[in-house]
Amino acid sequence: MKHWLLKTEPETYSFQTLLKEKKTHWNGVRNFQARNNLREMKLGDLALIYHSGKDKAVTGIARIAREGYSEIDSEDGSEWVQVEIEAVQPLAQPVTLATLKATKSLQSLPLIKQSRLSVMPISPSHYQEILRLGK
């Protein structure tokens, strides 16, 4: 099983919305590296949901419910990739970007190194440390 971090602006789609809806398509990704990461996701992989924008915090856990499949961009007709995710649980306490940056064991976290990438793999140790910080 791999672990992932998915970024979203909470005004566009928040983890709280995912909790209410239970499942959603994770689409609209228009970056080639992020698209390739979506293609690598497997059924059952776990993902941390990170709110960008003013929140800047990891807020919850989701599971990959359907592996990557075609998403056709309605504006230009190009083919991208989407997955389906389902809510697992919110973190008891959001883990802010400031906390992530201040935690020594997370210094190599892709979110810190490639802050603009919206879909990124994270190591099992990073995943576990973020869960620890969120409890």
What's the short story on this structure?
With 135 residues, the chain is α+β, with helices and mostly antiparallel strands. The protein has helices at residues 15-21, 32-40, 97-102, 110-113, 124-133, and strands spanning 3-8, 23-26, 46-51, 57-72, 79-96, 119-122.
Explain what this protein looks like in three dimensions.
The protein is of the alpha+beta class. It contains 5 helices and 6 strands. A 6-stranded mixed sheet has the order 2-5-4-3-1-6.
Which helices and strands occur, and which strands form pairs?
Blueprint: E1 3-8, H1 15-21, E2 23-26, H2 32-40, E3 46-51, E4 57-72, E5 79-96, H3 97-102, H4 110-113, E6 119-122, H5 124-133
Parallel strand pairs: 1-3
Antiparallel strand pairs: 1-6, 2-5, 3-4, 4-5
Mind describing the biggest β-sheet? Answer: 6 strands, mixed
Q: Give the H and E element order.
A: EHEHEEEHHEH
Low-confidence segments: none
- Range of helix content: 25-40%
Give the N-to-C terminal Cα separation: 22 Å
Residue-averaged pLDDT, rounded?
95
Q: Specify the structural class.
A: alpha+beta
Give the tags.
5 helices, 135 residues, alpha+beta, single chain
